[in-house]
Amino acid sequence: MIFLTGVTGKIGGETAKELIAKGAGLRALVRDEAKAAELKAAGVELIVGDIADPDIVKQGMDGAEKAFLLLPNGEQQEANEKQFTDLAVASGVKHLVKMSSMEAVADAKTPIPQAHWAVEEYIRASGLDWTMVKPNFFMQNLLASAPTIKEQRKFFLPMGNGTTGMADGRDIGAVCAEVLTGQGHAGQSYEITGPEVLSFYDVADRFSEVLGEKVEYLPMPMDQFRERMTGILVPWHLNAVCELFQEIAEIGLDHTTGTFKELIGRDPISLKQFIQDHLAVFK
Asked: In this predicted structure, what is the pLDDT of residue 269?
C-alpha cells in the first residue's frame, strides 16, 4: 500500500495516474472528496481530512509501506511535513518520497527552498528510507498565462532574463511513480529537468513556432506582479513566491540533467510538445 498526498494537484494527480496504470495499491489524503472522484472510481481509497490532523494522517498510513509527501507551499508546510515524517516513522512506513525542488540546497536564501531543505534534512535524519524528487520549474505553470497568450499573443512574468530547466508535470509524475514502485531509489536525490535550458524569451519563441504567430514575453516589474497577486495569495505565500521569482531572474539555471531519461528510459517532453498538447488552451 502506498499513501499519497497532493493527488488533486497537477503533479500529485499525474503521479496517481501513473501508479494506477502500474496497478499499485493506493490510499490518498484529500480535503475535498469531490475533487478526487475519478481517482476513487479508479480504485484509490480516500481519506478525507486535513494534513495537519495527526489522527487523520495516522489513519492514512495504517498498513502503508511507502508514503508520498507533496504539500502546497505555505507558512505551515515545514511544520506539517516534519509532523508527517514523525508519523511515518511511528506508523512503520518504510520509504518516504518527498517532492522538493532543485533550489532546495543548504545555503538557500528564500523561504520556499529553505523550508524544503529543512524538511529534507529532517527526513534524512529520521531513519526512514527516503528519496527526494527535485524538479526546477513546471511547464504547467505557463497555463496561467494562457488567457493573455490566446488573446494578446503576449505573456507577462517577473523573471527578467532568468533561465529554467522547466519540465512537464507528466514527466515528474512518471518519476515519482517509478521511485514509489521501483528498486534502488532509497537514499537518492533526483534533480529532474526538461531537455533544455530556457529563458522566457526562448519560451516565447517556442510558442511562436508552434502557434504560427509571434508571441512576446514582456518582463513584468516585481512590484507590479506583487500588486497583481495581492489578494490572490496570502501575504506569506506572496512574499515567498516573489523572492523565488526574483532568484530565478537574478540567478536562473545553467544546466539540465539526464536523470529523467536514466530513470524512465525516454527523453523528457519538450516545451514545444507541451504547447502542442495544450493547443486548445493557447490557441
From this structure: 98
